[in-house]
């Protein structure tokens, strides 16, 4: 039953983070990037910590492992990942950024080979990672004329993906004892504070009316509740039960969800190469998860 549950949670994670790109695009029309990201995690942190205080045991950090986990989440998975991504996307196209961010599983594999020897993939699994990345490229299809432009933005997006990859691997080594939902919430609070500081240093000065604009509140509400509080609680819960390489495969599915959401909500085209890209991603995903899929098929046949 837990496998079916985790598969459903993985699908929810892909859907929540895929839809977040649409919400971010709308919100950035009115708010500067670092403040927008910080507000997202302000609300997410309050929701998760409040929920953990009411419904969970051990919601306050007590051990060194708890504090290390909170710092890893706040610094690597919230502040660096989102700050670098939001700023980087100002200097490059969304398509190129999506491909670069999809390096996450590949980068996670590299960090895991050094820091988590037990989580190494087989050669066939590594092939699956590369096949999935090729599928993402087919889905996104960046403009070849712009591939070499915006070097600064591309570097920031790659560093964002590397921060998520390293943070997810380091999190497996921290051994927290507090509830994962509470740890996630406290980590978001740390990340939000750091991003507010970066926003002030960067001179971002929005008006209160901009924050209260319905054009901002709707996407901010989606990001805070669905793509942050709920999605990150699921993400870190999955990391407790599965390797970071396996969990970060969600980065291959997110661009697919984004493409479908754009087709449904923004009347964007869904072309034949995009559909082929979907299938290629599924092939790569199946190579990485072949053992779990084989076990599922054998159980159904029995």
From TrEMBL:
Alphabetical keyword list: Membrane, Transmembrane, Transmembrane helix
Compartment(s) where it occurs, according to its Swiss-Prot or TrEMBL record: Membrane
Keyword Membrane attributed: yes
GO cellular component: a single term: membrane
Predominant cellular place of this UniProt entry's protein: membrane
Organism domain of life: Archaea
Pfam family, one: EamA
Membrane topology field: Multi-pass membrane protein
Transmembrane segments annotated in the record for this chain: 33-55, 67-87, 93-112, 124-141, 147-171, 183-200, 220-238, 245-264, 270-288
Residue intervals of the EamA domain: 9-140, 152-288
Protein name per its UniProtKB record: DMT family transporter
């Amino acid at each position: 039953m837990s496998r079916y549950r985790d598969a459903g949670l993985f699908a929810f994670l892909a859907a929540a983070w895929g839809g977040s790109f649409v919400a971010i695009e709308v919100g950035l029309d009115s708010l500067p990037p670092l403040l927008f990201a910080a507000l997202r995690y302000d609300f997410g942190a309050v929701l998760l910590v409040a929920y953990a205080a009411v419904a969970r045991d051990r919601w306050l950090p007590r051990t060194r492992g708890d504090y290390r986990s909170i710092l890893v989440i706040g610094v690597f998975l919230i502040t660096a990942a989102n700050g670098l991504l939001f700023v980087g996307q100002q200097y490059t196209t969304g398509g190129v950024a999506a491909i670069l961010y999809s390096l996450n599983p590949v980068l996670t594999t590299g960090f895991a080979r050094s820091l988590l020897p037990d989580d190494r993939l087989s050669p066939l699994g590594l092939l699956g990672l590369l096949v999935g990345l090729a599928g993402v490229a087919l889905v996104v299809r960046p403009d070849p004329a712009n591939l070499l432009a915006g070097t600064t933005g591309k570097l920031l997006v790659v560093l964002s993906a590397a921060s998520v990859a390293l943070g997810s691997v380091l999190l497996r080594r921290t051994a927290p004892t507090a509830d994962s939902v509470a740890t996630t919430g406290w980590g978001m609070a740390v990340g939000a504070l750091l991003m507010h500081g970066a926003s002030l240093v960067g001179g971002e000065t929005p008006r209160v009316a901009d924050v209260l604009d319905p054009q901002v509140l709707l996407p901010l509400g989606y990001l805070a509740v669905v793509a942050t509080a709920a999605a990150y609680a699921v993400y870190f819960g999955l990391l407790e039960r599965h390797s970071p390489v396996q969990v970060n495969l969600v980065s291959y599915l997110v661009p697919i969800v984004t493409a479908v959401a754009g087709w449904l909500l923004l009347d964007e085209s869904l072309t034949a190469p995009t559909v082929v890209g979907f299938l290629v991603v599924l092939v790569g995903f199946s190579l990485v998860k072949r053992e779990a899929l084989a076990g599922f098929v054998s159980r159904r046949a029995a």
